[in-house]
Amino acid sequence: MKQDTLKHVPVMLAEAVDALAVKPDGVYLDGTFGRGGHAREVLKRLGAGGRLLLLDRDPQAIAMARAEFGQDPRVEVRHGSFADLAEWDATEGGLDGVLLDIGVSSPQLDDPQRGFSFQADAPLDMRMDTTQGESAAEFLARASEEAIADVLYNYGEERMSRRIARWIVERRQDQPIRTTAELAELCARANPKREPGKHPATRTFQALRIAVNGELDALERGLAGAERRLKPGGRLVVISFHSLEDRIVKQFIRSRSQPPPARRGLPPPAHAPLTLRAL
Q: Is residue 75 situated within a structural domain?
């Protein structure tokens, strides 16, 4: 494992873990283990009777979690998406807190072979879970021009989405796009009026990553699963960076922060709100 990877410190580490208000004997779930920055901080605050459940879609992240925390009796590790956290037997007893750090992690971006970045030429993969699903290259090889354009516009807010999609479909008639450099070059040629300080492929890469990994659907399912498993007074902390993710989280928080409507002639319904925070 590279030393710089081991030293990776997640953004807003203290703020996120402070918001969980960790109790020494509580049960917590880190749904995006990454390289363990949040997990290590939570474990510092847990006592011998506490538990920490670790999830991640990335096989490399899970391998690191098992290597570092596999012998800690307080920790349980599972390879999978936080979208399915409520289906994990270990969560059935209820959770005192759930932490989700949404989006691609720095180690994933920094590894050129994962295909998330156009900074180096590599296979156009972009899967967070490399054991299943189709890669970005496979999606571009089989999707219709309309479907590609919709992904680029809806998930990347790419104004040149239709032009880029048309060029991709025309290009694949001769040779499918297989690498990050090929896609970045096509985007640059299809979109010569670049935004200041931003590569013309930035929005396309972001959109494809979100689509390939089903990130927005996973987020919605994960939030619903957290609501099912959190105990009364439990805390849900979500770190989001993209406006689409941020909107989903804020709408969820807003809808769950209001007490159920009272019915005339009946006592007010019991309401034990969750403590939710978006960072």
A: yes
Locate 269 and state its tokens. Answer: 């319904």
| DSSP states of 52-93 | EEEEES-HHHHHHHHHHHTT-TTEEEEES-GGGGGGSGGGTT
CB atoms within 10 A of CB 84: 16
3-state SS, one letter per residue, for 190-226: HCCCCCCCCCCCHHHHHHHHHHHCCHHHHHHHHHHHH
| Residue 134 maps to a domain | yes
Where is the domain boundary, 185, 212, 239? 212
Q: What is the largest CA-CA distance in the chain?
A: 71
Q: Would residue 120 count as lying in a domain? A: no
> What's the structural domain count of the chain?
2
Residue 139 belongs to what domain range? 130-212
pTM for this entry:
0.88
- Give the model confidence (pLDDT) of 127-165 as tens digits: 999 999 999 999 999 999 999 999 999 999 999 999 999
